[in-house]
Amino acid sequence: MMKTISRLPLFARLATLLFLVAAMSAPVRAELVIRITEGAEDAIPVAVVPFGETGNLSFQENVASIVRSDLSMTGEFSPLSVDKMLSLPSRGKDIFFRDWRLLGQKYVLVGELSPVGQGERVSARFELYDVNRQERLLGETATVARDNLRTLAHHISDRVYQTITGNRGVFSTRLAYVTLEQEQGEPVYRLHVSDVDGQRSRVRLKSDEPILSPAWSPDGRKLAYVSFETGRPAVYIHELASGQREKISSFPGLNSAPAWSPDGDALLLTLSRDGNAEVYKMDIASRRLTRMTNHWAIDTEPSWSSAGSSFVFTSDRSGGPQIYRMDADGGEPQRLTFGSRYNARPRLGPDGDYVFYVHQREGQFSIARLNLNNREEVVLTRTGSDESPSLAPNGRLLIYATQKDDEGVLAVVTADGESTYTLPARFGEVRDPAWSPWTGNS
Predict the structure, then answer these.
(1) Which residue intervals define the domain TolB N-terminal in the entry (predicted)?
(2) Which end of the chain lies in a sparser environment, N or C, as judged by fewer CB atoms within 10 Å?
(3) Sign for the pseudo-dihedral over CA of 202, 204, 207, 210
(4) Which class for 333: exposed (0-12), middle (13-18), buried (19 or more C-beta within 10 A)?
């Protein structure tokens, strides 16, 4: 039975069929903790004032603090510390713009929380102002259950982000990731789903065998992943609301690297059912397989374009792992990467202009970005052991797994590489992140 898992990139795992990990003794806790490691120098100064409160309710969550944390993690904003604020208005009419200009702020967000009915629900009124113009840019009211203030805070963050930048926020989306801990000397794997800041994590699957490569369905309701729970790799689809799971691929040999089509009707998979690792497309309803690649080399780690007209994948057909692009209707694959002898695990940006991938240079694994229009390659991370990149749905943030102080952590870097933060588990190993799409609630 397979009991351990490698921290090498997935391509290396498929090539060697080995899963190795150093022994660990510290337990894993579900929640992750944000640690800002590097911010952009030109971050936008914004003041998120503590929200006022009416009634006699006590709240377990600090809405304004969550909004400040959300905006900070993008690297595009530099929220003002509360202890530096000269006043704490909760309504626009109480803002003294001169004070905020003195503090160098470009925007100020104020708001107020009020009980609804018997206090089981909470209404939040919030307003965003341009300090220099003394102009209200946003004024809204939202109502949620009293125990759901984090959802409210993420919604406010999304609205503020979009109002200022013109781009849709991702704070109401979710993360999936895998943790590994030792229990009584045996490895235990857990598949988690959490908020993008690592909070409200829930375990969706626990196994004493490896769990790999979670992938979100386009509607955000399901996860596909690889599980070794039967002693060999199989691909499952897991419906999050009901907890129902279905094994959809358990052919002899490899069953790995699931990737949903944009319409949610099909999965790209890596299978070795015919003796060699190739990319196949499976129609989920009929289970009909279409072989997409046909080469003696290892072809794996597929990723769809946003339109579903093409996909990228990793292949060692040139002598070492490189990124290729292929039309969904077939044809000859086009090699995209040439900058080093190892480029793998590609992920296309939502606009199709960039591909992000694991890049090896001088023995270090980093995350790189290739401009598909001018072929310019930019290395975004310098940690040295980076893997499993996954893009936010707006294409402006990228999460990946790495090592920091001998522990497995998740890290986020902006798509331009200017700002980073980490999401380590409180103890132990965390890996294989997947950023959810937007849903009706995000």
Answers:
(1) 33-137
(2) N
(3) negative
(4) buried
pLDDT at 20: 27
Q: Does residue 237 share a domain with residue 156? A: no
Residue with structure tokens 């018997």? 118
Does the residue 23 lie in any domain?
Answer: no
Distance from C-alpha of 367 to C-alpha of 381, rounded to nearest angstrom: 5
User: 399: domain range?
Assistant: 174-435
pLDDT at 303 over 90: yes
Of 165, 191, 224, the domain-final residue: 165
Q: Are residues 153 and 178 in the same domain?
A: no
Task: Report the CATH number at residue 134.
Answer: 3.40.50.10070
Separation between Cα atoms, residue 358 and residue 257, nearest integer Å:
15
> 321 lies in a domain?
yes
Residues 154 and 210 both lie in one domain? no
Q: How many structural domains compose the chain?
A: 2
Question: Residue 345 pLDDT > 70, yes or no?
Answer: yes
Q: What is the rounded CA–CA span in Å between residue 175 and residue 435? A: 5
CA dist., res. 238 & res. 107, Å (int):
42
Same domain flag for 430 and 322 = yes
Average pLDDT estimate for 371-386:
92
Q: Is residue 13 part of a domain?
A: no
User: How many whole angstroms separate alpha carbon 213 and alpha carbon 223?
Assistant: 10
**pTM of full prediction above 0.70:** yes
Q: How far is CA 135 from the centre of its chain?
A: 34
For range 48-70, the mean pLDDT:
90
30 falls within a domain: no
